[in-house]
Amino acid sequence: xxxxxxxxxxxxxxxxxxxxxxxxxxxxxxxxxxxxxxxxxxxxxxxxxxxxxxxxxxxxxxxxxxxxxxxxxxxxxxxxxxxxxxxxxxxxxxxxxxxxxxxxxxxxxxxxxxxxxxxxxxxxxxxxxxxxxxxxxxxxxxxxxxxxxxxxxxxxxxxxxxxxxxxxxxxxxxxxxxxxxxxxxxxxxxxxxxxxxxxxxxxxxxxxxxxxxxxxxxxxxxxxxxxxxxxxxxxxxxxxxxxxxxxxxxxxxxxxxxxxxxxxxxxxxxxxxxxxxxxxxxxxxxxxxxxxxxxxxxxxxxxxxxxxxxxxxxxxxxxxxxxxxxxxxxxxxxxxxxxxxxxxxxxxxxxxxxxxxxxxxxxxxxxxxxxxxxxxxxxxxxxxxxxxxxxxxxxxxxxxxxxxxxxxxxxxxxxxxxxxxxxxxxxxxxxxxxxxxxxxxxxxxxxxxxxxxxxxxxxxxxxxxxxxxxxxxxxxxxxxxxxxxxxxxxxxxxxxxxxxxxxxxx
Length: 506
Known about the structure:
506 residues
């Protein structure tokens, strides 16, 4: 259990499973994941942070998954299916794309047919069904709807649920029964794929824990508008009887985005959640903590108040702040392993909510160099010497530039400030920022893999408010990892008291 005062000092690395090398064009739960974790464990890294694991849709964003509870089938390791389930077939990707950016269209076209074939072989009786039947029975409350939903999405050529025929869109029982019968074979395939996913992830999770590495997972505050969650539970969101959103989520304009950020997700109908004591959210947290050891809640400030934009708006300018559930919901999570992503537009009310929750917030070193006052502000909360113990410090996150890319883009004036602060020449500035965070009072420090490798913005994971092939597609190339990098990280972890004992309690 993470204690509220974050007494344990440790270091983590941020790398999503899609970023591992593999011969199928996308990272997965296979051998390369284990090799990377063993490398991190040797350096005494004790935390592995990932992004959400849900099945992605348009834009390939893990923060816009098609299900809150399902897993991304593309992360299944094809090579281990035969070892796990005696399927009796070797699967190979003809292009053998071990490293390089993920081409999601190509991966889907090449890997999904192989996954479906593996699932069909399993259905045809190549191995025992006892564990599978138990999995289906335990998870029927979400699995049945998810498998039907994905089969329908395929049948209707990836169209959105709110574009389907009225009886299906509004989930009329007789219509659902008809489609469950019509698509029965496809539905079964998706259930098997989820069984594969969770079996493999559980094995990888245990492997990481056995190395002394705990996993930090991620819960997006919102669900996607084209998700099975919105289709099956529209009453939980501001969605009308015809399946149309009446409001959408976003962020207000700021110094970086004059039109704000229009995310488009449906916003919550919080009175409905309150009426049953937030059971959907409590279940969401419970299920996530079965998959990971620690949960980072994305856009944590949205629980205090959130930016609501009218349906149909083309930007986020004409929105308004709407009160969120605050501690009425968050009190259910006290004592759990939770990190609150408290970035963005913060107010005293947000700060008070975070303090009352006891959850550690986040500090991003790249945010520390505000020169708007015309001078260096040594009191900036994101400067490492100002970190409190109960926080999680990052050089940057998946939404930021890489630290090398960020530094390269600074003006000469800003570069001079950063160099002076870390007492570092240009060529070593990334490692000196890493050292500065590890030496700080923050009891948890997480470093993106790109920064350990010293990569520039060609390795950036995501550019917010954009859609393109560069987003969510970066992959780690082991050939870039030099021996001194992990050795230096291990030395810093040792010097600054972040080396864990063989047996420790989180």
